[in-house]
């Protein structure tokens, strides 16, 4: 008892260092999950909770990809358009090759996402176009191309086996989407603990310092964009399975992903924040949507509440963060 | 040529300064706009249309007005190192407020109501960015969400009505020139004067260039950022008034359908203003707006698929900024 009432500074420091800049988002997530439990006690029944995670999966995956780009000091506004394009392209591919294996189509989408990411990365680094503009242009191009190709109204259906990943469950209870989400999360954490992650954060923190210390800044950034494109393609597969073909499939997802990442305490401009916190930000956002739904807040007012909470959470995070940093000097930039 | 190498540094800076004026991004943008106009004229003429027909000129100019007003405001915040993503929803709400106030009251109260709304939103944006230290991207995105929720909760379709006297702003013209272009000209001239000729403007450039250095040199950077946001929102309010007079009513989709948030940022960057702040200006932005409007008109005349238009637009924006990056010594 005595040890818990008088905590020594060392474990406290270790705790803050482990949680890093993500403390506000973990607190927010806990508050939201408790609020969900109070509003709807059956929320934590296994299938309901897994359904919640399943709905959150695309956003979490997008947030992981977006995190890589943001921590390296850039933006990716094209992910929403990649999701829309992915869903529509999948339907069009099935229109031409009706009996294609779902794995082939999925791989094609992932490859497409990687190519878009590669283009984003090369334009941003080699042509030195600010990524905000690169990916904004890419968003216009992708959306325009998809609608031009489909004559304005994407149609066609996705077969059951393709949609299984987004809507069905393994062993009858564990949704595939949850597994995909876990796999992506684990991969992202592993990536950030490796050399790549450290050089990525170094690049975002100070491009020049990183370059002078031998980091191939351009290559690292291009890779971050490619991974973000791949993440968006994966999200497209899940979204397509979950809600079918729609021209609105990915609309606004880019802003939701960026919001989630920033909610996770990741600093726009790069160099700080952890990928776990970014994904926790995505879960918080989804929990917030669910909570507003359960509370019966009208769909229209939902975005108002979302706006207020995002501003408040980030404002709070900014305030807390600077105090923590002053206390433990420069422990920022801890990966994962 | 050799003596210049030995000349004292003071003189050596002379030609450099003159050259930097010639390579001022705004000059390049207007040259590019001229090239686009000539090319557009050629293409449309070959296609059998007439680019310089009065109707077409009027359309181009009035298409410039709304985006131009928003983009001029956007330049002010981007120069200061900030950003405003809430402009689209502010336009929508502005048209609704204008139309509803003018339906019951006079035109003047409508205008005042919209401007008051603009000041409030700009002040809120500025205070969130400076006071709460929320990144401008997130802060104004948050404001946009708040405005969107309010609009969607209270309006399902067009509302209010604008009196006939106010619709003159949207439809009257002198020869081929719509009167609304004078509104844009006045706002742009005011913004140009403010940014280039006043102390506030210098503070805006200083804050955008290096906020820390500016603060250490005695610039009240917070106040500057807040004022920049208010200026931006006022310009957006003017755009909302113009669109209200054009539409004859308020519409919840007035600002969002044309994506004024991202389009205005694209126009500003197309106009040679650095997204990071501190460099560029209103004159270049107007050139960027003109380029986008002329492209639009050429595509319309050729009856190009509207979706294909977006593809070309994306390519043009990326290509233009890539060109600036090549010309500039440092990338933004």
TrEMBL record, chain A:
<keyword id="KW-0813">Transport</keyword>
<protein>
    <recommendedName>
        <fullName>Autoinducer 2 import system permease protein LsrD</fullName>
    </recommendedName>
</protein>
<feature type="transmembrane region" description="Helical">
    <location>
        <begin position="257"/>
        <end position="283"/>
    </location>
</feature>
<dbReference type="InterPro" id="IPR001851">
    <property type="entry name" value="ABC_transp_permease"/>
</dbReference>
<feature type="transmembrane region" description="Helical">
    <location>
        <begin position="15"/>
        <end position="37"/>
    </location>
</feature>
<keyword id="KW-0472">Membrane</keyword>
<feature type="transmembrane region" description="Helical">
    <location>
        <begin position="222"/>
        <end position="245"/>
    </location>
</feature>
<keyword id="KW-1003">Cell membrane</keyword>
<feature type="transmembrane region" description="Helical">
    <location>
        <begin position="170"/>
        <end position="192"/>
    </location>
</feature>
<feature type="transmembrane region" description="Helical">
    <location>
        <begin position="129"/>
        <end position="149"/>
    </location>
</feature>
<feature type="transmembrane region" description="Helical">
    <location>
        <begin position="102"/>
        <end position="123"/>
    </location>
</feature>
<dbReference type="Pfam" id="PF02653">
    <property type="entry name" value="BPD_transp_2"/>
</dbReference>
<keyword id="KW-0812">Transmembrane</keyword>
<keyword id="KW-1133">Transmembrane helix</keyword>
<feature type="transmembrane region" description="Helical">
    <location>
        <begin position="49"/>
        <end position="71"/>
    </location>
</feature>
<keyword id="KW-0997">Cell inner membrane</keyword>
From TrEMBL, chain B:
<keyword id="KW-1003">Cell membrane</keyword>
<dbReference type="InterPro" id="IPR001851">
    <property type="entry name" value="ABC_transp_permease"/>
</dbReference>
<keyword id="KW-1133">Transmembrane helix</keyword>
<protein>
    <submittedName>
        <fullName>ABC transporter permease</fullName>
    </submittedName>
</protein>
<feature type="transmembrane region" description="Helical">
    <location>
        <begin position="52"/>
        <end position="70"/>
    </location>
</feature>
<feature type="transmembrane region" description="Helical">
    <location>
        <begin position="27"/>
        <end position="46"/>
    </location>
</feature>
<keyword id="KW-0472">Membrane</keyword>
<feature type="transmembrane region" description="Helical">
    <location>
        <begin position="225"/>
        <end position="245"/>
    </location>
</feature>
<feature type="transmembrane region" description="Helical">
    <location>
        <begin position="105"/>
        <end position="127"/>
    </location>
</feature>
<keyword id="KW-0812">Transmembrane</keyword>
<dbReference type="Pfam" id="PF02653">
    <property type="entry name" value="BPD_transp_2"/>
</dbReference>
<feature type="transmembrane region" description="Helical">
    <location>
        <begin position="134"/>
        <end position="151"/>
    </location>
</feature>
<feature type="transmembrane region" description="Helical">
    <location>
        <begin position="77"/>
        <end position="99"/>
    </location>
</feature>
<feature type="transmembrane region" description="Helical">
    <location>
        <begin position="174"/>
        <end position="194"/>
    </location>
</feature>
<feature type="transmembrane region" description="Helical">
    <location>
        <begin position="265"/>
        <end position="295"/>
    </location>
</feature>
């Amino acid at each position: 008892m005595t040890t818990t009432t008088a905590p020594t500074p060392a474990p406290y420091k270790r705790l803050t260092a482990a949680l890093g800049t993500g403390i506000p988002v973990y607190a927010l997530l806990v508050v939201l999950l408790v609020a969900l439990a109070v509003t709807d006690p059956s929320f934590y029944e296994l299938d309901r909770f897994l359904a919640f995670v399943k709905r959150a999966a695309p956003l979490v995956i997008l947030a992981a990809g977006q995190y890589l780009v943001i921590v390296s000091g850039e933006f990716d506004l094209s992910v929403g358009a990649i999701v829309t394009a992915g869903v529509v392209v999948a339907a069009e591919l099935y229109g031409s090759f009706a009996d294609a294996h779902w794995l082939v189509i999925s791989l094609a989408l992932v490859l497409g996402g990687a190519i878009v990411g590669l283009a984003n990365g090369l334009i941003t680094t080699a042509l030195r176009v600010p990524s905000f503009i690169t990916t904004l242009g890419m968003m216009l191009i992708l959306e325009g191309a998809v609608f031009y190709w489909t004559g304005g109204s994407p149609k066609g259906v996705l077969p059951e086996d393709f949609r299984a990943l987004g809507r069905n469950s393994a062993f009858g209870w564990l949704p595939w989407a949850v597994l995909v989400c876990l796999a992506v999360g684990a991969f992202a954490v592993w990536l950030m603990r490796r050399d790549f992650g450290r050089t990525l954060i170094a690049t975002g923190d100070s491009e020049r310092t990183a370059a002078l210390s031998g980091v191939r800044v351009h290559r690292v950034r291009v890779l971050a964009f490619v991974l973000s494109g791949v993440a968006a393609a994966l999200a497209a597969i899940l979204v397509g399975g979950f809600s079918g073909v729609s021209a609105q499939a990915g609309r606004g997802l880019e802003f939701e992903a960026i919001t989630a990442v920033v909610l996770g305490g990741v600093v726009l401009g790069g160099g700080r924040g952890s990928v776990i916190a970014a994904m926790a930000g995505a879960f918080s956002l989804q929990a917030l949507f669910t909570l507003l739904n359960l509370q019966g807040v009208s769909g229209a007012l939902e975005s108002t509440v979302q706006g207020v909470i995002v501003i408040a959470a980030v404002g709070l995070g900014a305030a807390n963060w600077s105090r923590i940093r002053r206390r433990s000097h420069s422990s920022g930039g801890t990966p994962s | 040529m050799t003596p210049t190498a030995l000349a004292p540094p003071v003189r050596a800076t002379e030609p450099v300064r003159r050259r930097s004026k010639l390579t001022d991004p705004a000059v390049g943008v207007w040259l590019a706009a001229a090239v686009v106009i000539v090319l557009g004229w050629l293409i449309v003429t070959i296609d059998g249309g007439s680019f310089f027909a009065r109707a077409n000129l009027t359309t181009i100019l009035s298409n410039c007005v709304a985006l131009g007003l928003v983009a001029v405001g956007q330049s002010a915040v981007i120069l200061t190192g900030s950003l405003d993503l809430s402009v689209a929803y502010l336009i929508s709400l502005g048209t609704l407020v204008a139309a509803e106030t003018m339906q019951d009251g006079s035109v003047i109260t409508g205008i005042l109501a919209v401007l008051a709304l603009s000041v409030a939103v700009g002040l809120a944006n500025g205070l969130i960015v400076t006071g709460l230290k929320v990144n401008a991207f997130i802060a104004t995105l948050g404001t946009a969400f708040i405005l969107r929720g309010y609009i969607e909760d209270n309006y399902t379709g067009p509302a209010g009505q604008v009196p006939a006297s106010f619709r003159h702003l949207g439809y009257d013209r002198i020869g081929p020139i719509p009167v609304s272009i004078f509104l844009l000209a006045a706002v742009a001239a005011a913004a140009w004067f403010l940014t280039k000729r006043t102390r506030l403007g210098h503070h805006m450039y200083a804050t955008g260039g290096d906020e820390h250095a500016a603060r250490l040199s005695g610039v009240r950077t917070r106040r500057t950022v807040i004022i920049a946001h208010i200026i931006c929102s006022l310009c957006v309010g003017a755009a909302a008034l113009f669109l209200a007079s054009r539409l004859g009513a308020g519409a919840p989709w007035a600002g969002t359908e044309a994506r004024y948030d991202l389009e205005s940022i694209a126009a500003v960057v197309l106009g040679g203003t650095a997204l990071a702040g501190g460099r560029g200006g209103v004159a270049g932005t107007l050139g960027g707006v003109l380029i986008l409007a002329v492209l639009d008109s050429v595509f319309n005349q050729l009856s190009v698929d509207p979706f294909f238009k977006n593809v070309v637009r994306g390519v043009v924006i990326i290509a233009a900024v890539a060109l600036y990056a090549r010309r500039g010594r440092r990338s933004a």
